[in-house]
């Protein structure tokens, strides 16, 4: 799901012209399309990660309730720890996502700032 972020530098180098080739390609349209693609990719990944966090949080809550009822069940404890670890991993993924998004927007703004101005509300 991070393909667009992984390839943004290449994408900008091949589609946004340098000053010497500025007349041959519509850079504003290219930057707008890339902007729309980045916005959609970032929103989609954020939705997926948060959905996974919500589902895993629900499982952890349920397992905690079960664990309180049956303190001697080691299998239940093991499963709870496994789900808690998964939840922490998913929460840390939000931080990774923020770094990836920031990097992509920085590169985008460096190359597209003179060709395309994003809407103010975003």
From TrEMBL:
InterPro entries: MIX23
GO terms for cellular component: mitochondrial intermembrane space
Family membership noted in the UniProt record: Belongs to the MIX23 family.
Record-given protein name: Protein MIX23
Gene name in the database record: CCDC58
């Amino acid at each position: 799901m991070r393909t667009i972020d992984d390839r943004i530098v290449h994408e900008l180098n091949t589609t946004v012209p340098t000053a010497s080739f500025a007349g041959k390609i519509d850079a504003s349209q290219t930057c707008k399309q890339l902007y729309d693609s980045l916005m959609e990719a970032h929103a989609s990944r954020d939705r997926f990660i948060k959905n996974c966090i919500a589902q895993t949080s629900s499982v952890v809550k349920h397992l905690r309730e079960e664990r309180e009822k049956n303190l001697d069940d080691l299998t239940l404890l093991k499963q709870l720890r496994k789900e808690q670890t998964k939840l922490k991993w998913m929460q840390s993924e939000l931080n990774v996502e923020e770094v990836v998004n920031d990097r992509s927007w920085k590169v985008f703004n460096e190359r597209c700032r003179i060709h395309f101005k994003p809407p103010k509300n975003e």
